[in-house]
Write a structure and sequence with these properties.
This protein is an alpha/beta fold and 318 residues long. The chain has ten helices and eight strands. The chain has an eight-stranded parallel beta sheet, with helices on both faces. α9 links the parallel β7 and β8. The chain binds manganese (II) ion (2 copies).
Length: 318
């Protein structure tokens, strides 16, 4: 099937509030039929505080009906570059973390074998560990993480698998190269002075929000590109990096965060990159009945899709 078979519904023909509810009004397809697979991972069993991220994929699909075809700055339409479709949701068990870790990883291993690059919508941040287990096969990859938190804790409540631990586990399992990792937007008081020891000892580059404000986004994103150094890279975007005034629908909000406009520009500054996959996590629609957090997530997902499509397809052709 060709690119023409994977176009969003025309809003001049089918109104944005009508038709099937898919990501960006794209058709549903199998991963093997596409170049970039948009996927939901509706699991929030790893949440330590306020829940609800299991509802993220469905509400972001809804809000993404407002996403249009062409990027207003770059002029790029990802739908003209590559085959992109909604490939549905990964199988999860809301009553079992262990089951879900296994089924999500196995689902993403299938995606990897299909040849499609996944762009996943969570779910809480624990899903990233499963995704990496599924798609990383030829040695550790780099990571660009947008987050208010490191997520490199060892355990909570005696459990080593929750949304505060995925990046520590991924490093221990050889899925991520800590020397090719950068975490951007960290802030907020911590429980113990030692909370950053693991990340610092491992060699992860941590950019607190204060440094970002001081140096500016161009400088920081240029450093991010140089840290991953052209090698295979995963992008993980936790919506709580955005200030809760603009994205209140998340489980662990921290004030003093990015604006949505800064986040858009920062993602855009990453291109081109050797992207093996990306996710956007921690959107909890029940905590923001206005839908604003999910709308922010849908538009940031479009930014991630644009840089992924451009990175795979090469320079703009049209
Ligand atoms: Mn976070
Ligand atoms: Mn996180």
């Amino acid at each position: 099937m060709s690119i023409e078979d994977f176009q969003p519904l025309d809003s001049g023909v089918v109104p944005r509030f009508a038709g099937p509810c898919s990501f960006m009004r794209l058709p549903f397809a199998k991963p093997r039929e596409v170049d970039i697979a948009l996927l939901g991972v509706p699991f929030d069993g790893g949440t330590t505080n306020r829940t609800g991220a299991r509802h993220g994929p469905r509400e972001i699909r809804n809000q993404s009906s407002l996403v249009r075809r062409v990027h207003h700055v770059t002029g790029v339409s990802p739908f003209d570059l590559l085959r992109v479709a909604d490939c549905g949701d990964a199988p999860v068990n809301p009553l079992s973390i262990d089951d879900s870790l296994t089924t999500i990883a196995s689902y993403f291993a299938d995606i990897r074998r299909s040849g499609a690059v996944p762009l996943a919508i969570g779910g809480d941040h624990l899903i990233t560990l499963s995704i990496l287990r599924g798609i990383v096969k030829d040695g550790p990859v780099g990571l660009i993480q947008f987050d208010a938190h490191t997520d490199t804790y060892d355990s909570f409540f005696g459990s080593r698998y929750n949304h505060g631990t995925p990046f520590r586990r991924a490093i221990e399992e050889g899925l991520l190269d800590p020397k090719r990792m950068i975490q951007i937007g960290l802030r907020g008081a911590i429980s113990h002075r030692s909370n950053y020891d693991f990340a610092n000892d491992a060699g992860i580059r941590i950019v607190f929000i204060e440094e970002l404000v001081e140096r500016g986004i161009n400088d920081i994103m240029s450093e991010a590109r140089s840290i991953v150094a052209g090698g295979p890279t995963y992008i993980s975007f936790d919506i709580d990096v955005i200030d809760p005034s603009m994205a209140p629908g998340t489980g662990t909000p921290e004030i003093g965060g990015l604006t949505t406009r800064e986040a858009q520009a920062m993602i855009r500054l990453l291109r081109p990159l050797n992207i093996v996959g990306a996710d956007l996590v921690e959107v909890s629609p029940p905590l923001d009945p206005s839908g604003g957090t999910a709308l922010a997530a849908a538009v940031l997902m479009f930014e991630l899709l644009c840089i992924t499509a451009e990175s795979i397809a090469g320079p703009r052709r049209t």
